[in-house]
Amino acid sequence: METQTLERVLARVRDIAIAAGREIQRVAADGVTAEEKADGSPLTRADTASHEAIAAGLAELEPKLPVLSEEGDLEQQGMAAWRVFWCVDPLDGTKEFVKGLTEYTVNIALVEDGRPVLGVVYVPAQDVLYYAAAGLGAWKAEGGGEPTRIHARQVDKPERAVVSRSHLSAETEEFLKRLGVTEMVQHGSSIKICAVAEGKADIYPRHGPTCLWDTAAGTAVALEAGCAVVDLAGEPLSYRPADGIKKTGFLVYPRLLTDQVCPALAEA
């Protein structure tokens, strides 16, 4: 997609993400109750309200594109052949949301030829917005203020890791030990990817299953901030539906650290 088109669409998607975040906050104000989905993950009225707001907003955009959403139809005909599509997590970090924590996000990404080329990550409870598009850089805005450009930290070796609050595994701890990383900060949702993108952490390893919508928007931000986002074989994380919606794990780190990170990954 041309840069001019991406710039125009990105402005609208930022508004859609913020509107979805307002829907989440409205539900939160009324009190949160959760039910269990078939895979054991929680579902709240906020997930559904955010999904509906995003679906309505994206339907008004040009060009018209299919939508892969965690709360949408996951059995859509022809999905495996999609070349360009929206990848959406209406409420990433539902567990944190149910617990009353503030680390949950709205994630909207545009995927083209297996790569997220546009992404918006909105943190409703903190009013923090991360966004990026191919060739346009990665940006952060807080409290509706002026955006600032963000970049991955330029370091010789990884010193600080960000890890999952809910899914920290023994494999992740062992991997970080091989890299010599001793400082770990826990976060929920796609905030972890954004932490590496803005230089608050040097690496985010995830040894455990995720789905495309969990990471697509954050990946778009991370790539434009100077990060690599790879699978557990060290290859760029694929967002082609034909390669599967579920992934076994991934890493996010500044590209400068590739020569250190990949050998440690190969030792697993």
Annotated CATH homologous superfamily of the largest domain: Fructose-1,6-Bisphosphatase, subunit A, domain 1
Number of domains: 2
Shape: globular
| Gap between N and C termini | 38 Å
The assigned structural class equals alpha+beta
Helix content: 25-40%
CATH class of the largest domain: Alpha Beta
CATH topology of the largest domain: Fructose-1,6-Bisphosphatase, Chain A, domain 1
H/E order of the elements?
HEEHEEHEEEEEEHEHEHEEH
Provide structural commentary.
The protein has 268 residues and is of the alpha+beta class. It folds into 2 domains: 3-149, Fructose-1,6-Bisphosphatase, Chain A, domain 1 (2-Layer Sandwich); 160-266, D-Maltodextrin-Binding Protein, domain 2 (3-Layer(aba) Sandwich). The protein is 33% helix and 30% strand. The chain has 7 helices and 14 strands. Strands 3-4-5-6-7-8-9 form a 7-stranded mixed sheet, with helices on both faces. Strands 12-14-13 form a 3-stranded antiparallel sheet, sandwiched between helices. Strands 1-2 form a two-stranded antiparallel ribbon. Strand 6 and strand 7 form a beta hairpin. Helix 5 (191-197) runs parallel beside helix 6 (212-224). The protein is globular and about 45 Å long.
